[in-house]
Structures are given as C-alpha cells and as structure tokens.
Design goal:
Strand content: 15-25%
Organism: Albidovulum sediminis
CATH superfamily of one domain: SpoA-like
Protein name: FliM/FliN family flagellar motor switch protein
CATH topology of one domain: Surface presentation of antigens (SPOA)
Distance between the termini: 148 Å
Shape: elongated
Largest sheet: 4 strands, antiparallel
Structural class: alpha+beta
InterPro entries: FliN-like_C, SpoA-like_sf
Radius of gyration: 45 Å
Keywords: Cell projection, Cilium, Flagellum
Pfam family, one: FliMN_C
CATH architecture of one domain: Roll
CATH class of one domain: Mainly Beta
Oligomer: single chain
Helix content: 10-25%
Order of helices and strands: HHHEEHEEHEEEEH
Strand order of the largest sheet: 3-5-6-7
Number of strands: 8
Length: about 230
C-alpha cells in the first residue's frame, strides 16, 4: 500500500509542477495507516482542506470498482509558483540593461521625397542631366521610414542654417507607403530652358559672345588709331 500511495502522490506532483496547484499537491508521502478513520478529526490540524476524489476500475475488465479520496491541507507544503512573488531584483536589473542596450542601438531612417514608376526601358536609358518629374506637393509630404515597417512620421522639406532639413509635422503608426506615380524621364534639350529650343548653356554662350568687344575696339567703345602696314 505504501508504494501505491507514494507513486500516486509522485504522479500528482509531476502533473501540477510549475502551476499554482503545486502549492497544495506537492511535498507529501506515505507515513502510516489507520485501521479506524474516526480519530482523524483529532489528528489533523485545523484549517481548510482540499479534497480530490477519483474513481477507480480494478482488474482487466474493471471487475472491481472503488473510490480514491485525497484530502490535503489547502496551504500545502509545496513551493509557491515563481510568478506569484514577481520578478527578482536580478531579473529586473537584466530587463533594464536590455532596454538601455536596445534604445542605444543605431536606427537608420530614410526620408522619402516621392515614389515614381518608370518602364524598364526608361530606367536603362537614364543618363546624367535627365529629369524625373515628381508630384508638385512632394516637398510638403516627405515621409520618414525605417526598414519595412512603413512611415512613422511625415514632414516638410526646407532649410536650416544653410543645410537641407526636414520639419516633422505629424506622427504615423507604421503607415504603408503610398502608390508610386507614373513618371517619364525628360532628356535635354528641355522645353522651357534656354531660347528658341536651345539649352540654357547654349543660350548663355551666345550671350557671352554677343557681349565680347569687336576686334579693334577699345573696352570703352572708342576706336584705336590704326595705320596700314607698309
């Protein structure tokens, strides 16, 4: 009988290990046997009792039936669950050090002016001096993004002490990026730059040639005296 009771108590302890029930179910073993249960009220200490009742089937076909009654003090003898007492000072210190290390880690943010979509042929044909049109309001709607987490802020592009700067105007909670717009690369000569369809550089060169003094003329516009070589 002692072996059966100890095995049953050990199995119960394994089932409730790491839970709040381990407080009352662990720490007991077989001690002695009473032929008469009537003295139990005198032997047991006063206090709340937890009762566990199990039905038993004995024999190969369950010919014998019985009931197992387990009554243990509610306060128990097992250790309290580790979470009940809260984190230890060592655990709190480790959490604080981990938080400080994570907050001190470098984070790279990208200021996105606009997203455009071009054909593969246009992408392969990009050359220095070409222009890619972007939305007119993109300067006022620059998104600040980190990795693939979307935009977490939006601001306006401007200047601060001679350098480009971004003024944050609203915070975002990982807003997905907006759709890219169609854009067609523009190659020089560009319409609206220069005169008569010429580029700005060509127009500037013509202006410099027109302003140059003619041969034989003084810078003030007076003619130098000349004579024919004999």
């Amino acid at each position: 009988m002692a072996g059966f009771v100890d095995a049953a108590l050990a199995g119960l302890s394994e089932e409730v290990a790491g839970t709040e029930d381990a407080v009352w179910a662990e720490g007991f073993h077989y001690a002695s046997c009473l032929d008469d249960p009537r003295p139990l009220p005198l032997l047991l200490e006063d206090g709340a009792i937890r009762v566990l009742r199990l039905g038993l089937l004995l024999g190969e076909g369950g010919e014998r039936q019985g009931t197992l009654l387990l009554a243990l003090p509610a306060e128990g003898r097992g250790a309290r669950h580790a979470e009940a007492a809260g984190p230890t000072p060592e655990a709190r210190d480790w959490s604080a050090r981990l938080e400080r290390a994570l907050l001190a880690a470098p984070a790279e943010a990208e200021a996105v002016l606009a997203r455009i979509r071009v054909t593969a042929d246009a992408m392969l044909g990009l050359r220095p001096g070409m222009l890619l049109p972007v939305p007119a309001d993109c300067v006022a709607r620059v998104s600040l993004e980190v990795g693939g987490g979307g935009a977490f802020a939006r601001g306006r592009l401007g200047r601060f002490r001679g350098a480009r700067a971004l003024r944050i105007e609203e915070g975002l909670a990982g807003e997905p990026p907006g759709p890219a717009i169609e854009s067609r690369p523009l190659a020089p000569p560009l319409e609206g730059l220069g005169t008569g369809g010429r580029s700005a550089d060509a127009g500037a060169g013509a202006a410099r040639r027109a302003a140059a003094p003619a041969p034989g003329a003084a810078p003030s516009g007076r003619a130098f005296p000349t004579r024919q070589a004999g």
